Amino acid sequence: KMTQQMRDLQLAQARKPPGPSSPNAAKRLYRNLSGKFRVNYTSFDEGSLVGRGEKEKLRKSYLFQSNAALFEAVELQDLDRVQEMLKHYSPEELDLNTPNSEGLLPLDIAIMTNNAPIARALLQAGAKESPHFVSLESRSLHLSTLVREAEQRVNELMAQVVNEAPNADCSDKEKQLKAWEWRFRLYKRMKAGFEHARVPDAPSSVHLSVASSSSLQVTFWEPLSVNSAIVTKYKVEWSCSPTFSPLLGEAVIDKLKDLHFTIQGLVSGTAYHIRVSAYNMKGWGPPQASTPPFAIPSNWREYDGRAPRRRGQAEALDHLLGQVKTVHQHCICHEPCKNQPQSRKHSVSKSLKHLFHPGSKFLKTLKRGLYLTAIFYKDDNILVTHEDQIPVVEIDDTYSCLLMQDFLWLTKVSCMWDEILWLRQCVTVSQSSCSCILQTRFKMLLAISQMQGLLGIQDLGQVFFEPIKDKQGNILIVTLKEVKTNQTFESVRWVPICKLQTSRKSVSSPEEPTALDTLLISLQDKLAYHQRSSHALSPGLYLGYLKLCSAVDQIRVLVPEQLPNILCHAKIRSNPNISREEWEWLQKMASVEEPVPTEPEADRPQNPLFQELQVAIKELMTLVNIPLQEAKDFRLYSQEVLDFGDQVSFLLLLPPSDDVCTAPGQNNPYTPRSGFLTLPLQIFELGEEG
Predict the structure, then answer these.
(1) Spatial separation of the C-alpha atoms in residues 249 and 238, rounded to whole Å
(2) Last residue of a domain, one of 138, 170, 196
């Protein structure tokens, strides 16, 4: 009962200092408390003089203070302080959903005082309404009781203050009176807010899209008017009937960080109707039907029953590699290898302990030849030898012209660093053919094995897409690997990149720098490329621009510098799925050879995908510096949708057939602005696979 709750509150007040005498006093209180409970719990280590029991009591005291401070901040409508506490402390640390002695939660106070910013901040953090309010009547009765008992307490304290002679006890009573007067006003404001509020309007918009062959995605927006009470949850309902009778299912969404919901487990080919309604403390508002009014779960593959392109490919390749190993087992001579890598079970921290002893075969300077260097970096630091040198090993001192096919072969080898010893043994046996190509590749494997043995680590990272060449006849192949461990290593030094660049004495002129000098000068650019090439796209459907250019020994593909493992692209929408109906529309457009949709047409039906494509094409053409009128001759690749997992898919935009690949010497009238690269096609394929 509320009377008993208020008695408990009075007893609690008798045991602790009096409550705040005014809003300013309350503000000082919770600021002091919030400063006190901002402690470093790691300081309570095993060596502390405080016992474990005392530690737990101290921790609970801090948590209690943090909870009280949060209530005070909400009551005083201090948005900055509420956001600060929600940022630094978890809901558990704040006891976010534990009622106070009045049976209220912080969210209850925020919504009943109609403080929308604080209420939204609390909802984003996972705050709930009090479970005691099972009906409008129970909430109204609870508020009336709070107001009545607060008023009664104010009257009692006022009588005591008037009748008693001035003394210390009277001063305490005056403080209590001010605190209760302030709380009485708060409760009256909460009661008035509740009585004034009405149920919310329907959500302003509900968008329905096909997420897969068994699911639909519902995205909705807040009501235009919440009628003086913030919305705290939404309800999504679905049915096969436009009258929603019978109702097939419903879901209540009380996590409002993202206003969308995916309905799973639906039947492919069946039409479903969707509606969404909003809820506030006065109840559920009217539902809003979706646009379009119904949708059919499907996927573009159902158009012709096509299986996923990559289904079983990884397993098949693993099986094929196993077969090749089995066939070559009798050829392996198990020769002793001085530079045999350590077991892969060794951690990076252990394997790097014995890095770079004085007898190692890392090179300080380059002579005319082909070399391999491994860049290991962490933040702004780089791993160097005990002589402050980047680790470099020799591949071939007589090889002054690196063939592109050999380099591309090495990039493929980088996908199986663990198998270098086996590959080397196989190539050793195969040298009877005296092939120059095999000899060169065998030397590459030897250099890789040497680097792995000296470093004590097998994974050398990603091969940079372009070797470094100088006029002295040196060619430097670069691998890049980010070390994310925070451990320190014995006999190894992490050197800041800027310090390494400034301290190294160049042995070449600025006009003709050596490959090592060029590496140091461009090191930040290469590290940036390595980090960007591992970035992933956010989920969605994208429009990619496929533009190739050919050279004598390779084909290169245009990519953005900021995301070099993906084609130039523009996002079409957040839903990656193409439905069967959408794919049928694309096929019809391709069959009649319609131009790419760059401008809206008055007599064309308003297809959502059509509109989304128009926006994406304009954005993409601007990005690659092609006039929009030229896009009318472009084509959408209609053979398939390129799926990259379950979250990202691509439609391809192709130039006219004669311009897809620019030949050597062919003029390209529209060159992209800065911010693009052309990667060898094989390098791009490896990056895309990763």
Answers:
(1) 6
(2) 196
